[in-house]
Amino acid sequence: MTRVWQDEDGQQYAIAPTTDDEGVRGRRLLIADADGDLDVALEVLSKPPAPMQEITATWHRPVQPLLLQRFATDVVTELLDGVVRRGQTGWLQTNIAYALSWAGLEVSRWWGPEWPLVEDGAAGNAYSEPDADAVPFAWLGLALNTGDVEIDIYQDDAYFGLCFEPQARRVLTDNDPGYFRLHESLPLPIGRIEQVRVTIDTTTLDDPFSDIVLAEAVLMVGGQPVPLIAAENYGPNEWHRLDESVVILRDSAALKNLDWHPPRPV
């Protein structure tokens, strides 16, 4: 059933369900054109529940950022009904919705403090090579057309996940330049964020003290993917998932090919 409402600007919007395709569920946000016809502005799809469950937001045409946030929050709450633990406060759903609501916005710069791979006070810290498959950061800053935002790490008991902050909270120069390698501008794609895909790790539900974790995300910017994962480097080619760094991956192949601990569920 399509629900239509009148937003604050007098524009007519609607929410409609997607067609059921092999268990894929989702919702479309539609906006009325000058003739009153409804066209898709944003689509959110969720694959069937799995150990690594994906939720994807795809941008189609401009719409108000606040409306995107409102739509994403409603849809995520619905899609994760029965997946999160009973009594969960809703913070996780809000975090996921923040990520999805960046679809359609434009990024003009990335920055952040890079963790060293090896700490050596005498010889100096060692950092990732320019062609590394994975580079760990304490957090990432993004300059969007709606303002600066951050991608950080949050902790849920023994596990860490990606945290999408709607406003920048940190200043790069607050980080110790003798320990971190500070990047005022990272060589990452800029332009419109055409799609945001988040991956929810549900295997953590085996732990009675933890909930699902926002473990990974891919931002499609100007046609180029920017894969991110909550992980940490423990030594040469040893990466631990659900840990306390925002790791940028060279490409989606690295996400599958690196040796993750614990192993990354398919």
Give a brief rundown of this model.
With 266 residues, the chain is mainly beta. The chain has helices at residues 65-79, 91-100, 252-257, and strands at residues 3-6, 12-17, 25-32, 38-46, 52-59, 106-114, 134-137, 140-144, 147-156, 159-165, 181-183, 191-201, 213-221, 224-235, 238-241, 245-249, 260-261.
Look at the structure and give the mean pLDDT: 89
Strand content: 35-45%
Principal-axes shape call: globular
Straight-line distance between termini: 34 Å
Largest sheet: 17 strands, mixed
What is the total tally of β strands? 17
Reading the helices and strands in chain order gives EEEEEHHEEEEEEEEEEEHE
Low-confidence stretches: none
Task: Decide which structural class fits the backbone.
Answer: mainly beta
Distinct helical segment count: 3
Radius of gyration, whole Å:
19 Å
Fraction of residues in H or I helices: 10-25%
Explain this structure to me?
The protein is mainly β and 266 residues long. It has helices at 65-79, 91-100, 252-257; strands at residues 3-6, 12-17, 25-32, 38-46, 52-59, 106-114, 134-137, 140-144, 147-156, 159-165, 181-183, 191-201, 213-221, 224-235, 238-241, 245-249, 260-261. It has a 17-stranded mixed β-sheet that branches. A hairpin with a 5-residue loop joins β3 (25-32) and β4 (38-46). The chain is globular. The model has no long low-confidence stretch (mean pLDDT 89).
How do the helices and strands line up, and which of them pair or pack?
Elements: E1 3-6, E2 12-17, E3 25-32, E4 38-46, E5 52-59, H1 65-79, H2 91-100, E6 106-114, E7 134-137, E8 140-144, E9 147-156, E10 159-165, E11 181-183, E12 191-201, E13 213-221, E14 224-235, E15 238-241, E16 245-249, H3 252-257, E17 260-261
Parallel strand pairs: 15-17
Antiparallel strand pairs: 1-2, 2-3, 3-4, 4-5, 5-12, 6-8, 6-11, 6-12, 7-16, 8-9, 9-10, 12-13, 13-14, 14-15, 14-16
Helix pairs in contact: 1-2
